[in-house]
Amino acid sequence: MTTSAERRAPRTVEGVVARMRALGAALPPRDGVAVFNRVYLAVTEEVGRRLADGYFQDPAATQDLDVRFAARYLAAVDAVAAGRRPSACWRPLFQLRRHPGVRPLQFALAGMNAHIGHDLALALVETCRARKAEPEELEGDFDRIGTLLTGLEERIREDLMPGPDLLDVADPLTHLVGAWSLDKARGAAWAAFRALWGLRGLPELTEEFVERVDESVGLVGRFLLTPLPGD
Fold first, then answer.
1. For 70-119, how does the pLDDT look when each residue is reduced to its tens digit (9 = 90+)?
2. What angle do CA 152, 182, 225 make, to 5 degrees?
3. Contact yes or no for 128/176 (Cβ under 8 A)
4. Sign of CA dihedral 104, 107, 113, 116
5. From residue 224, how far is each of 102, 215, 217 by CA, in Å?
6. Which SS3 state, helix, strand or coil, does residue 31 take?
7. So what's the pLDDT on residue 4?
8. Number of H-type helices and E-type strands within the chain
9. What's the start-to-end Cα distance of the chain, in Å?
């Protein structure tokens, strides 16, 4: 069944922030989706502030991309709420969201992996098509967002790491969090976007490419959510 939230997809960054705040308020704090939602909310709030202070070269295009990007995460939330299966990239997070052996940082990274690894390339394609733009026109502000995310990622890891004992390289959580890179995920997303843009006149190949990316990102998510021994 389609919910009223699904019918009213946000059209501005402010609308996305409001939706994420409402979602966070409705979920238990330890829920894996709630953990990722808090991280994503902080990122979106920062983008909103920078849209207003002249940081971006093309604020309108950046807002368009941000809203289209967020809509894919919110669509996964709505799909699960309606009893439907989300994209393969999101399934590990929703399936393991209440597992007691998965740490908060794992949930955060799994959500970032799903959203950046799969959704970002598709949102970039949608934005270019809607604005009749070429990829190069988005690249500068894409890199500016990347600079913001790099600083935020460091804070996220510090906030969600359970303690200094995890500096031990033999600790399983240290191993897991070191195996995923935001910078590399964004680089792969940009490459996938360029490939999809080149394939835009070939729908069958595009569909196959998207399906394979979806599945492979889901596999990485499953790895990131490996349950770990208790403290």
1. 999 999 999 999 999 999 999 999 999 999 999 999 999 999 999 999 99
2. 100
3. no
4. negative
5. 9, 14, 11
6. coil
7. 46
8. 11, 0
9. 41
